Structures are given as C-alpha cells and as structure tokens.
What does this fold into?
Amino acid sequence: MDYTTMLPSEVREKIRSGEINGQTSGMCQGYAQANLVALPREIAYDFLLFAQRNPRACPLLEVSDTGSRQLHEIADNADIATDIPRYRIYEKGILTKEVEDASPYWRDDLVSFLIGCSFSFEDALAAGGIPMKYGADGKSGPVYYTN
It folds into this structure.
C-alpha cells in the first residue's frame, strides 16, 4: 500500500488498528512527523526549558496538558497513547519495554511533548533532488547514540 499520499488521520487509524506498527518514514508527504516524549509533570518543565533552549535539536510542535492523551494543535482526534506505531518505555533511565499501545502505561501526571522528526525534512531533500539511500533500501534514517 502506498502511504505517501495518505492523510495523517488515515495513517493514525491504521496504526491504532495495528495495521502499521513500524517506522513511518515517507508516509504522509508534506506533513510534519513527530517523536513523542512523555514525562512526569515534576520533571516536564525541565525538559520544556531544554527544548526551548535547543530548538534545532528538539523542535517543539506541541505540548499536551498534564494527563491528557489528546492534542489541540497538531492533530484532531488523535490519541497519543495509541496512534504511534511503537512506544519505548523507560524506567529510571533504562529501556524496559517496547509496546504498540501505551494505554496501560499512561498516567494522569504525564506531560507529552511532540518533537519534530527528521522524516519531515526528508521530503524537502527528496523534492530538491537529494535521494535518501536508506529509504530506497527500506530502512529508516541514520541514528546517532550519545551520552
């Protein structure tokens, strides 16, 4: 199936139903894609401040209300606990699980941050004639691990 021309709401529905559960590079061309960070309210302000001071590395697209799984600006009728293909659950800084539905882990004190994703600017590069070799190979973009 060709996901490149689908609307984001259509892709979110396919994610919610379990039809899509992998990386989303190349989907919904022309729309911004995002990564999700959900943090307890007690440390959310620190992350917000970090993101505001580092807008190139962490471009904020939206910040949720505490405990809310809904968005107000970037996506209508989206549930951020079910509409992302995979969620990584960290406990005390250690990756403990990877799940397709974060609902069982959702808490009333979580604040969600949607951060711009490199998948969004790949469209602009491709439109400018700069191919993404890893995309042609069916892989997602390069990832750099740091401490």
